[in-house]
Specification:
Blueprint lengths: L1 E2 L3 H12 L5 E3 L7 H4 L3 E2 L10 H11 L2 H12 L6 E2 L2 E5 L2 H15 L5 E5 H7 L9 E5 L3 E2 L2 H14 L3 E3 L3 E6 L5 E6 L4 E3 L3 E3 L5 H5 L10 E11 L8 E6 L2 E7 L4 E5 L13 H14 L7 E12 L6 E4 L4 E5 L5 H18 L20
Parallel strand pairs: 1-2, 1-13, 2-9, 5-15, 13-20
Antiparallel strand pairs: 3-8, 4-8, 5-7, 6-7, 10-11, 11-12, 14-17, 14-18, 15-16, 16-17, 19-20
Helix pairs in contact: 1-7, 1-10, 3-10, 4-7
Amino acid sequence: MVVGAGVIGTSCAWSLARDGLTVTLVDPEPFRGASYVAAGMLAPISELTAGHERLAELGLASLARWPAFAANVTADGGVDPELRSLSTVTVALTRADLAMVDEHHARQGTHGSAVTRLRSRELREHEPLLAPGVVGGSVTTGEAAVDTRKVGAGLTGAAGACGVRTVADAVARLDRDADGQVRGVTTAGGDVVRADAVVVAAGHRTTAVLAGQGHAAPEVRPVKGQILRLRGPAGALGHQVRAIVHGRQVYVVPRADGRLVVGATVEERGEDRSVTAGAVRELLDDASAVLPFLDECELIEATAGLRPATVDDRPVIGPAGSGLVIATGHHRGGVLLAPLTADLVVAAVRTGRAVPGFEDVAPDLEAAPWS
């Protein structure tokens, strides 16, 4: 059984079913959370931040799995997730912003990735629609993007085609037998669903689902992200564009049909999913400062999602003992890390142990009991 039907939970459920297991997927709103609104950048190096080198390593390991993952989603689910190789152009609007890009560039180089520092004129040769005022930046090759709405449709179809049963309800509690083994869940509607193992992949709700279970609790909190979708001319951008504008970061991810995803805020607002005028204005102002043509694009959607974040921003993936497996805390990297997470979860369910080399992201079984 898998609790949570976002990109992580649905990927795990489908992969477990593909591995020959009978799987039930439980979620009150399948694929309507953070995964649904995400931009779909698969950019572990251009998104690398100080102190998060391990996240980059995990991201690279998962990015390498994405071609086979996407092909299997298409084959099983009948929907192409539109995996596209897209280099990432990082641009700075001011000299102070360029210093931040240069610091980031130095950090990226430690991973041996193909990152090239570019002057303003060279940047516009890569992306002609960049504003003349950008002062410099870099290009990172070997990255990619997917259409998250099509990922969701494909994964949902693939899971169903492989026999995954979906229960559209929330989980009230995990159920255990007399020996403490997790044996399923009771839903908010009172239904009892039995299982030999339970994977909790409930995003920012994971801590609440696991409360009172007598094990080490991953502390997962919601981090709000507001994001926009525009409609522009097809082929306007040939790269993903990340920009630093007066110290703030913004990105623009093109889709094949001309849609553009602009995001995203990072807000500690609890479970607030409202879309605010200030956030929309700031995203549009910053994005159009480096890509002026965006002012002429149609605004087709403004949404907000709640990313699941841990204290150190590292995901928690692995066995938690007694028939329980956890897969949560992916923060901004859920879509990127879905293939790797699914592989780790299948191994954890089959063996009850963390995969060698990934013990550092497994649950801490020595921590204090959950309250």
